[in-house]
Amino acid sequence: MIKVGIIGANGKMGAQVVKTVLDDNEMELVLAVDKTDVGKIVAKNVVIEDDLSSALDKTDVDIVVDFTTPKVIEQNIKIYQEKNIKAVIGTTGLKKETIDEIEKKSKEKNLGIIIAPNFSLGAVLMMKFSQMAAKYFSNAEIIEFHHNQKHDAPSGTAIKTAQMMIKNNDNFKSGNCDEVETIAGSRGGNYQENGLGNIQIHSLRMPGFVASQEVIFGSDGQTLKIRHDSINRECYMSGVKLAINYLYKNNTFVYGLENIL
Q1: Whole-number Å distance between alpha carbons of 202 and 186
Q2: How many other C-beta atoms lie within 10 A of the C-beta of residue 227?
Q3: Start-to-end CA span in the chain (Å)
């Protein structure tokens, strides 16, 4: 049995992970941490605690799954690495230099950590298809749609998609005229890596959405749209289980679920 702890257990994603672990015959929920509903019973001998460090000190846990917020995720990861606890990270908002530092320390300690901007297998395929298409189109932009309670923008999925696309094309504004925004921000944010890429990313936040992303490619006389829609949060659970099972057997650092498919 894989002993799993869930951090952010009362959040929308965290609560879904709790249900998934409880329903899995090869996993055991041994720890739940959140800042709300402290003391609430979520499983046999498991109540929600609010102090992450002390909860980990007194619990025998194999892997933690963290779906908290950008405000606390960096500190949480430092705690996992200090205590040599493997972690599946679903919280987005981490900067590239922060991810690089986490990877460095993970390798130094031989400690497995998976950071995945998206756990939906369909979304991962959308990103891979976009990377493939990037080689053949001169222009591309990304539109991502999320519910209005998402804290960070653009989404981790949009950033990861852009990073993958840039590997196959270093300029997605080929042939564009000089632009003037009469309303600041109307063209979205321009994503670059080391001065390369130039991918406009547009973030929508609105009730009714779970998560969707559309990558639009253009060249002379044609456009191509690659889109993925998450209808509910159950779509992420197969990816979460895949990450837990992979990490249980491996001590590697992984950024992006596509690397373990």
Answers
A1: 9
A2: 12
A3: 22
Round to whole Å and give the CA distance between 3 and 14: 16
Do 111 and 239 fall into the same domain? Answer: yes
Pair (111, 240) in one structural domain: yes
Place 26 in a pLDDT band, splitting at 50, 70 and 90: very high
Q: What is the dihedral of CA 20, 24, 26, 32, to 10 degrees?
A: 40
Please confirm, yes or no, whether 128 is among the known catalytic residues. Answer: no
Q: Which of 86, 146, 228, 241 is catalytic?
A: 146
Shared-domain flag, residues 125 and 212: yes
Expressed as residue numbers, the domain containing 47 is 2-115+234-259
Summarize pLDDT for 197-230 with one digit per residue, the tens. Answer: 999 999 999 999 999 999 999 999 999 999 999 9
| 147: annotated active-site residue | no
The active-site residue out of 3, 19, 83, 150 is 150
Query: Angle 237-249/121-134 helices, nearest 10 degrees?
Result: 90
